[in-house]
Amino acid sequence: MQLSFAPVEGNSKNYKILVAVLAALVIAGVTAYMIAYLYGFRLWGVNNSVTWGQLITVDFFFIGLSAGSLVVSSLVYVLGQERYKPIGRVAVFMGLLLMFGAMLTVLTDLGRVEKCWRLFMYFYLSNMKSMFGINGIFYAGYLLLLGTYLVAALSGSKLTKYIAPVAVLWAMLVHMGTGAIVGFIETRHVMYSPLKPIEFISAAFASGLALVMLLSWLTLKFSKRPLDKEMFVSLGKMLAVLIIVLMVLVAVDKLTHFYPPKREAVMFLIAGPWAWIFWLQVALGYFIPLGILFNPWLRKKVGWVIAACAICVVGIFFERAAIIFPGLSQPLEYYPGEIAGIWGARGGFLIMPAETLQTLGIVAVLGLLFVLGLKFLDLLPAPSEGEHAEGAPAEPAAPAPEGGQT
Amino acid sequence: MANWGMVIDLDKCVGCQACSLACKAENNVPHGSPHEQKRHHDIYWHKVIAATEGEYPSVNTQIIPMPCMHCDHPPCVNVCPSKATYKRSDGIVMQNFRRCIGCRYCIVACPYGARNFNFKDQVDEEYQRPDLPEDLGLSNEGHIGPWPYPHRTRGVVEKCTYCFHRVDQALENGEEVGSKLDGHHGVLPACVEACPTEARYFGDLDEPESAVSKLLASRTYIKLREEMATSPKTTYLPR
Asked: Cβ contact (<8 Å) for B41 and A133?
């Protein structure tokens, strides 16, 4: 299959408005972070009970999406499924972007961000018994691998074949390590589970595939590029399988912790004050997308498949939130009995402007880099012949000189 | 090397919170406003919890003072990525503010809620203590910086130190450290010293003649959350 890639032109009014809005959000986020850094994190919703907030939720979400995107790209570059090639490059690019965003969230979440280099002093100043310390290796290596992978994929180099499997395996390590950060903490019963690393991988596959489908469909549609409906429908079938795997894993995990009499943690999760997060995860992440993807009529319509993707991505976001917020706010049982006052009270969390603006700002950074990447890198398949492309696509690697009409 | 531990007699404790106040005064810990308390933003190195079981008329409220447990197998030390939390060879679990990057992983991992994040700079004058010595020049391993901490930093995690500065200073001056059953105590942590009912004992768990060892040998004792296998060195004598 001959396929050429070309950047979008990026001269239309809509494109410029999009860039301007994203840039404004980025500036707002940077300002919010500077203020929070100067005044302390009392401006955020985090507190001594729910010590991780929006940023770490988004961090886990991004890392998952990144690993998932990479796995999608592996369909093309490892398994050689040529029909998925149109979205291969976008998937690699998104993997890099999302990991960069995850690093932004986790580093700005530090109380003393200027000391973040201590995380990367492997075996010297970092504690290699800490899952955070171990993940420092995974994260840094992953960013380097992704950078090389993207350069190789963009230049159509033969190296891609060798980098891709390594990058995909590394992405799985990254994600299992991230799952272990929360899964290995026995103190927090909602989080504590041997299945967490596996569940994280599974959620990453589902959400990553869904996001790549969603974003590539959106960009292809708005840049009026050739849109292979069959590809999206078949990817939709794969998404359904991934969601079922994830659902089974979550169900087994929760049932394991529900079966013995010590089931407070599961009850807190599914019937406690934060239960709405968990049920949104179940409904949006699993049931509604599966309902669409298994409906014999809807699953053949690209619009519905993409809608299922969008709902699934939102649902997986709630899956991340359902780890952080119920997990941390469940009161610790220092002693049997009902503990009076703030020591026995469940932790609360306030949506504070500084934290929210910063979260939005980081999302906007990624959005901005994504749209700029579309303009300056050859990520998308070139417009179909006769539409606007100057010169028929000849070589898979040769970037067409002109982009589509945005 | 000593192995410092604390024994708290719950039969003697009256729940007066003198220990909590003494801790705040000794270690310059901010009081925290009611608003901050509501939002879980204030810092406690020591807390007193009241756990109630049963219903009226057969009800039992147990008052439990909780400093850091200074576990033998501290989960916080395991998870700290930057080695800011470490266990000294005398068993005291310390926090080095200069190394702490503020990731708050230790707060997530601590089963006893002993750790607090510093959410802001203290602007009130009472927390800027020029009267305190800049640095006691303590020669303990793992430099902790100036102590007692005259200027706190926001963005790091804080915790109880068993008043290590008192202990270290006393050892350097050749003074005796720890409680005695006859009432002639050596140098003690602030909370132990302040207890009006002498419900708290501090001393060397490895020294068979110390008050803490004798109490643990002669009475039944409990440790909090033993199912976590952290082996706390703060032990309780039940009522």
From this structure: no
